[in-house]
Amino acid sequence: MDSLPPLPPRFQLRPLFAAISLLAFSCAALAAAPTDPRRVASGPGPADIVFPSIDPPDIKPARAPAVDLRALPKGAQVSLPSQDMGHIFMRVPPTLADTLSSTEVADKVIAPLLAALKFEGGLRRFGRVPETGLPQVRPQLAGVAELLATEYQGNEKATRPRTLDMVDAFLGKRAPTDDVERNLLIARGLTYAQFKADIERQEITYPFIQVEGGVPIEHTLLLASRWEGQGVTSVRGSLINRYSLANARPQSAEGAELRAYAALKTVRGIDSVDGRRVSDGPSLVLLPYGNDAAGGVSLRYAWRMVVEGVSFGRPVPFRVWSDAATGAILKMRPLVSDVTATGTVWRRDPGTGASQVRSFAVDPAVGGQYTLKLAGVVSRVDHQADGFDAQDVSVSSTLGGSSATLANFNQAPINNGATGICASGGNPAFQQVNYFGVFHLNWKQSISHGIFTPFPTNPWNPRLESVSAGCNAWSSMDFGACQGYFDAACPNFSDGTANAPNYMNFAHDNTIVGHELAHNAVQRFTDGRPANWCGIGPCPIPVGMGLMHDLADAWADHFDNTNCTAGWTAKNLGGVNASNNCQGSRGHHEGGGLPRLHEVSTPFNPATPGDHFPEHRDLASGPYADMQIGSAILWQVREGMRSKCRPSGHPQYFVRFTRALKNAGLSGAVGGGDRGIYNLLRDLELEMVEQWATSGLPGGPPAFAHNGNHTTNKVLAGFAKGGVFAMPSACIDNDPGTSDAAICPTGENGGDAVIDMNDNDLGDDLTVDGITHRETDFLKLGGPAPTFQVWTGPRFRFTGTGARPVSGTAICNAKYIVEASTDQAFSPASTVNSGWINVDLNTATPASPECSGTWTPNAAQWTTLQAGGHLTRVYYRTRTRDALDANERLSTSPGAGLWTVPPPYAVITTTGGSDY
User: Fold this and answer.
1) What is the pLDDT of residue 274?
2) Is 234 strand, coil or helix?
């Protein structure tokens, strides 16, 4: 469902603004549409397409290298690799610093880390770093909050008494009220000014790139990061200590493009090649390519460039690494996946039965007409991809409510959503405005969250109901429609199967539009970033999220407030409404097809694993199915942050997630199979925990002197619910010879300590547009006692690259104790506990999920916790140990002590809920 347009220099914008507003609708069965080539299912269907790629040989694991932890910077905590090119992550205690040069970072942070790693050659083996570091783009709260506002616009079910006061403060429409300030302190532990500073704080990075003879070694670097006003707080990356050169260094790039195109022609899955254009490169790098005879890493000189080929009948840009001597492709990755205006759009899709007015930007009028076009970002929307005619939307610049500064697309008959659902309604204009409004918000949010610019690098050319899209959708913004949309029975056509004809119009489902744009955005944050992102190119390219289909569903989940992708377009698969909103008699597809539900159960039930790792991979594996695992995890994190305070949790989650994306994937090759997916997810988890854990610094700069980082447990619990933990795979790989010198120095050790809670009150949960959102962090005074959920580590182990079938005795910690207190310091008089509780370690007993357990305070204990009455905070934490009462882990020291964070807390209120 994905291919990405190449991106050109961005044009200077002269925007007008336009607003789009959609009406409530219905669509009766109308006369049958004439035969149309667009309704014929041809070619691969959704989730059937995987563009060709080439992977270099894996780097074989070696014995754990010798290290000297005493050489680390004072107070630093680390996770160290078990082999060359393994993942390095180091946490450094924060200090105050207004400025910091790369020389200081090298001397005080990088050099001690290299000494601890016993890295031969030290700093001499690294390229030059920009002296002042690289200040990252600041997210903007007002821009970020625009997405939040759409969730509540005209949506009474989602709005509590004072919700809009907080939203308006975030948008900058009004000053925060005293009540907004009070509730932010209650739920988040910070003031409005601190919340704004948290969203808008600036990250400064220092990339130390490993080189050989001045040529960068691909996928290796150490990236140090700090926040404005502070010293370095973290370093991540990958290095190669022992290597050999397998081919000769070229004298020049002459002929490199021709050789690469000749080799691309021979790749299976490539229909034809452009043969001319190279949009990025060629850049000379050293590509890690398996191992040499001595067990070291083999490096090959390669030209890295972006070239274009045709695959599945579509032009696709590919990043290739071409052997500098022979031209053979060593590695290949597909890169797919302002006048003010107003108009009406569906709220998520036609199935919600609701619409809302949105504002977006379009170009100034030409010839007295406004069209759906924004220079440098998106070309004019083309209905049916047949050139521009009367079917392509335009409005007068002087009539129908438009003016020199307002393009009013919210006018009849365009805004009649009832006639836009099916082809027989005869109103294709509505879907064009709907698409543009949805697309524009997604694009603008990417900019507001600090994406690498320009974005896009070439304008998109959106096409709706196009023959070229077929019964599918593409990240080049090419959307098809199927028989379910054209048939007289629309919107209730079904032949009873799950075949392609039953799909409707792909552009009508906002989750699909968001999914396709997500390919562009996630790649721009990760492996599609500018070639000079590190300041002095060519720069190493991160691994990216391609193994999990760019996590495109997770992006769409956030934008459309649902964990179901294509719940409208695919609603009639298996029967009329049999898959509607991922519910109905068929429900959803667990193998990566449509619709896709991102769901895990808590406590975990092996009989119905859902998207839990690694069991979901028994149902299906591959980019689409593995995306379901990552998306389910991220949905749990999002819902956890939303539960604490819906308006503030929404922007905090996504700003921190997108920041984490920028720093993820810098740890070299992740490997294959189950282990590769775990390594990729664990890398993302570490970066997300770093975002949460460093959001507050008692004693730090005033804007950050708070305990807002107490919600770190929402990240850890979200990943644990999906089966992933912040521990290296080397600690759970059935091989005592591999280890992490800091976390599992003796080899196998799966002990962890993660905790979350449930308020045991379904009555205060919200169901919005068919999706239930749990609120678990507010407890009702006099109501039921909460239940605490604990994870003591993973229930699986790796054997080679596999983690299935899950069998044998789990090596997680064997017991846990939960402490709950009205005192953050857990003073004995204010604290109750569960006593030590054993967990099941036998994976052959599916009735009791291994490595996890629950505890609910008894009546007397619950009375003690409620003694302070309304607005009492209940802090909680867990300790875990092995069967010998050793190997203690503490939930407030996640990652086996990589971080130290405050305990999370719930709030007791008279209603059991929040005013927000």
Assistant:
1) 77
2) strand
Packing angle between helix 141-152 and helix 192-200, nearest 10 degrees? Answer: 110
Strands 88-91 and 232-238, sheet pairing: antiparallel
pLDDT of residue 341: 65
Do 700 and 694 contact (CB within 8 A), yes or no?
A: no
Give the integer Cα–Cα distance in Å for 760 and 371: 52
Render pLDDT for 171-210 as a digit per residue (tens, 0 to 9): 999 999 999 999 898 888 889 999 999 999 999 999 999 9
State the alpha helices, DSSP H only, in 301-411.
none
CA 869 → CA 781, 788, 823, 865, 874, distances in Å? 7, 20, 14, 9, 11
Cβ-contact 765, 899 below 8 angstroms:
no
Phi/psi-derived region of residue 254, left when phi > 0, alpha when psi is between -120 and 50, beta in every other case: beta
Cis peptide before 701 (omega within 30 of 0): no
- Tokens for 548, please give them: 């999990």
Question: Which residue type sits at 458?
Answer: N
> pLDDT tens digits for 344-395?
777 778 887 777 888 899 999 999 999 999 999 999 999 999 999 999 999 9
What tokens appear for 599 in the block? 């769901």
Per the listing, tokens 């392509």 go with: 392
Helix (H) or strand (E) holding 297: strand 297-311
Q: How far apart are CA 250 and CA 696, in angstroms?
A: 50
Report the sign of the C-alpha dihedral through residues 635, 4, 205, 222, in that order.
positive
Residue 731 pLDDT = 95
Q: How far, in Å, CA of 252 to CA of 232, rounded? A: 39
Q: What is the C-alpha separation between 696 and 709, in angstroms, rounded?
A: 5
| 397 CA to centre of own chain | 40
Report how far residue 333's alpha carbon sits from residue 293's, in angstroms, rounded to the nearest whole number. Answer: 28
**Whether 235 contacts 109, CB under 8 Å:** yes
CA atoms of 334 and 50, how far apart (whole Å): 9
**Residue 305 in contact with residue 281, Cβ under 8 Å?**
yes
CA-CA-CA-CA torsion sign (685, 690, 696, 702): negative
What is the value of pTM for the model shown? 0.92
3-state helix, strand, coil in the chain (%, to 5): 30, 20, 50
Task: Name the one residue in this structure whose structure tokens are 């050293």.
Answer: 286
CB 312 within 8 A of CB 49: yes
Q: Which residues of the chain have pLDDT under 50?
A: 2-35, 38, 40-44, 337-338
205: left (phi over 0), alpha (psi -120 to 50) or beta: beta
Amino acid 46: pLDDT = 57
